[in-house]
Write a sequence for this structure.
């Protein structure tokens, strides 16, 4: 059988006493300063990021407000006269009414409304 190398009780107590009596190794003096300076630089970096983000948001808001203020003026000073705009709208509506798909849509809408009216009539008649 293999004998393990454990410390005896006396040896263990001697080891504990020697560890308690001797001073533990201390960290180097520059380590604390290095850690604190690195933490401070990270904090200032975060503050700079927050500042630049805030500046971007303020700039975007100012640009949006400027556009809101100037856009109505641009619509009023439109180069196309109102009569020409109305002509183009009426022409577009006429072209839409002449198209095959528009006619098909109208026919199916009429068919569906007739079916709905018929179903309402039948169910209303059955309830009474």
């Amino acid at each position: 059988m293999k004998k393990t190398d454990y410390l005896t009780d006396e040896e263990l107590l001697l080891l504990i006493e020697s560890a308690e009596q001797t001073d533990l190794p201390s960290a180097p003096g520059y380590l604390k300063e290095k850690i604190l300076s690195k933490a401070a630089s990270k904090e200032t970096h975060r503050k700079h990021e927050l500042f630049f983000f805030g500046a971007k948001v303020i700039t975007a808001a100012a640009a949006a407000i400027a556009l809101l203020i100037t856009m109505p003026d641009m619509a009023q000073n439109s180069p196309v006269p109102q009569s020409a705009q109305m002509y183009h709208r009426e022409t577009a509506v006429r072209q839409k009414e002449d198209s095959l798909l528009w006619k098909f849509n109208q026919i199916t809408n009429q068919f569906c409304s007739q079916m709905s009216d018929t179903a309402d009539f039948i169910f209303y008649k059955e309830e009474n």
In short: The CA atoms of residues 16 and 22 lie 10 Å apart. DSSP finds four helices and no strands in the chain. Residues 29-76 form the longest helix (48 residues). The chain has a mean pLDDT of 78.
